[in-house]
Amino acid sequence: SKIGASTFATQAASFLQDACESSIDWNNLGFGLMETDYMYTIKCGGKDDDFKAGKLIRYGNIELSPCAGVLNYGQGLFEGIKAYRREGGGVFLFRPQENAIRMQKGAQRMCMPSPSTAQFVDAVKQTALANKRWIPPPGKGSLYIRPLLFGSGPVLGLAPASEYTFLVYASPVGNYFKEGTAPLNLYVEDEFHRATRGGAGGVKSITNYAPVLKAISRARDRGFSDVLYLDSVNKRNIEEVSSCNIFMLKGNVLSTPEINGSILEGITRKSIMDIATNLVYRVEERSITIEDVMDADEVFCTGTAVGVAPVGSITYKGNRVAYKTSTPLVSKKLYSRLVDIQTGVVEDDKGWVVEI
Ligand code: COI
């Protein structure tokens, strides 16, 4: 009968899906691309046009003019958001509106139009749901969602592109660093800088990332996990690590570099500041000298991809300081609280999670 055939088809589809899921090694996810099923895209014709209806398409390569603004002049931004599967079912996004607003601010800085907050969040939801089978089981990782906004129109003379693409893709991920959750050993760079005064370091421009690759590779060759950058004016205040913000704890005071145009306004940074305040730490955003951080009790990094990563040592001009890395670490307490909110283990009384 027809019913029998369709039941068979549904069972076969479900079997194929399970077979595919079971071939994923959820226990060994790192931070590498795993191609998923769908991506979302919308275009917009230029600064006086709007992003209209977008659509999901099969994940795959895209076609670009060789003269596209993003390829020639780096006119592009990206975001990172995680979707978590919660124990007992359901999928949570963490503060996607914040990413939408950050992309809008970045778009202004890079002379690009941007999707509205509602369009952005809808695109992220659709991408997560279309790739639901790629969301790791609770406790095994998350689906990292990567929204991109870039000048896709051709532009030969230096100017904003004539067309923009907003594209969202996703990949399941686990730990960002190959060290896993082991403490990081940071190298303080005094030749290369991540951002300069008046530059684009405060927004998530793609142009902030390739210039640090050289510093990262040099540090890795010397056995370090990553690089801590100093401000480019005085070469004295700490700014960020290549892919994340930094915090130091001294006594009961938790400090992080203040937003000054060259520090990225991390959403994990902001959430950890909030959680720490609730747990009665004093939280300060201020200029932090390299000497200050070398004298801290505890240091840790925060970011969407990184989560909260403890720092085991910092090396500056040949001097290495080691920090406490055995429990009870304050960074661990703060991170557990954050993860419990993100995954629905504790009630979200802050309105941060969006169930989809
Ligand atoms: C993120 O934390 O989402 C980032 O964008 C950092 C990136 C370099 C992986």
From TrEMBL:
Q: Is Cytoplasm one of the keywords?
A: no
* Principal EC category: transferase
- What are the names of the required cofactors? pyridoxal 5'-phosphate
Quote the cellular component terms of the Gene Ontology held in the record.
Answer: cytoplasm
**According to its UniProt record, which reaction does this protein catalyse?**
L-valine + 2-oxoglutarate = 3-methyl-2-oxobutanoate + L-glutamate; L-isoleucine + 2-oxoglutarate = (S)-3-methyl-2-oxopentanoate + L-glutamate; L-leucine + 2-oxoglutarate = 4-methyl-2-oxopentanoate + L-glutamate
Gene Ontology BP annotations: amino acid biosynthetic process; branched-chain amino acid biosynthetic process
Carries keyword Transferase?
Answer: yes
State which Enzyme Commission number(s) the record gives.
Answer: 2.6.1.42
Q: Which family does it belong to?
A: Belongs to the class-IV pyridoxal-phosphate-dependent aminotransferase family.
Q: What is this protein called?
A: Branched-chain-amino-acid aminotransferase
Q: State the organism's lineage.
A: Eukaryota, Viridiplantae, Streptophyta, Embryophyta, Tracheophyta
